[in-house]
Write a structure and sequence with these properties.
The protein is mainly β and 225 residues long. The strands form six sheets. A four-stranded antiparallel β-sheet has the order 3-4-5-6, with no helix packed on it. A four-stranded antiparallel β-sheet has the order 7-8-9-10. The chain has a four-stranded antiparallel β-sheet with strand order 13-14-15-16, covered by helices on one side.
Length: 225
C-alpha cells in the first residue's frame, strides 16, 4: 500500500505476490524490497509501473523469524533484523543480530553486521538510570527485555541505527558503529505493537503499529526545532 501522508489516504495498492507473512519493506530507487518472515526477499523492480518485474532472493539467513528491513545506502546493502534468537547456548542466548545483504552480489553477510547483547543493554540502562519495563519474576519485579527485533531504520542525517522491539515496547538507538546510544521505553497503549519505522531527512519519524484488536496506526513524531 502506498499511503499519502498529507491526505491521510491510501493512493495505490500493488498486488505483487500471494499470501505470506510479510514483515519488512525497503525502497531502493525504483525498486521495492519486501521481507517475508522466513527470510525470503522479494524485489518488485520498477514497482510504480504496471509492468513491474518480480524477483525473489533466498537469503539463507540462519534465524527462523525475521522482521526488520531497511536500506543501508552507505554500504549498498539491506539490513535484515532477526526477530528470533541465534540459539540457546550460553554463549549466544543474549545476542540479537542484524545481517547485511549485499545488493550487488545478493549474498548475505557470513556474520551479523550489528549485534545487540541484552545483558549489556540492561547494564547500560542501570548506568544511565533508565527505567525499564518490568515483569514479575522469581525474585519479584525484574526488567522485561526479550528484544525481538521488529523494525530497523538508518537515520538519513546521523546514520544512527534505530531498532524497534515490539514485544517488550522499546526503541533502541545505536551509533553508526553499532554501539548503543539510547534506550526509549515505549508507551504500551500508544505503541501497541510497533513493527515499522521510517525517518525522513528532516528527522521526522514514522512508526507503524499492527492493528491487533483495534485499527492499525501510523504515528508521526516531528523533531523540535
Amino acid at each position: 500500500f502506498l499511503y499519502d501522508i498529507p491526505s491521510k489516504s491510501i493512493k495505490k495498492t500493488i498486488d505483487f505476490h500471494g499470501d505470506g507473512d510479510y514483515e519488512g519493506i525497503a525502497p531502493v530507487g525504483k525498486d521495492m524490497y519486501i521481507l517475508r518472515s522466513d527470510g525470503m526477499l522479494f524485489c518488485v523492480e520498477n514497482y510504480q509501473s504496471s509492468n513491474f518485474k518480480l524477483d525473489s532472493i533466498q537469503t539463507n539467513i540462519p534465524t527462523l523469524d525475521n522482521e526488520g528491513l531497511c536500506y543501508d545506502k552507505k554500504n549498498k546493502q539491506l539490513l535484515i533484523g532477526a526477530k528470533s534468537k541465534l540459539g540457546k547456548t550460553p554463549e549466544i542466548k543474549h545476542i540479537r543480530a542484524i545481517y547485511g545483504l549485499d545488493l550487488k552480489t545478493k549474498q548475505l553477510s557470513d556474520s551479523p553486521v550489528i549485534t545487540l547483547n541484552t545483558q549489556e543493554i540492561l547494564q547500560f540502562a542501570k548506568d544511565n538510570n533508565i527505567q525499564m519495563h518490568t515483569r514479575e519474576g522469581k525474585a519479584g519485579n525484574e526488567p522485561n527485555l526479550k528484544l525481538k527485533i521488529s523494525g530497523v531504520y538508518i537515520h538519513p542525517k546521523t546514520q544512527d541505527v534505530y531498532v524497534l522491539s515490539a514485544a517488550d515496547y522499546y526503541l533502541f538507538v545505536l551509533d553508526p558503529s553499532g554501539k548503543l546510544k539510547m534506550i526509549h521505553p515505549l508507551n504500551r497503549e500508544l505503541f501497541n505493537k510497533a513493527e515499522g519505522i521510517a525517518i525522513q531527512k528532516n528527522g521526522t519519524i514514522f512508526i507503524s503499529n499492527e492493528g491487533q484488536l483495534n485499527h492499525p496506526t501510523i504515528l508521526q513524531f516531528t523533531p523540535k526545532q
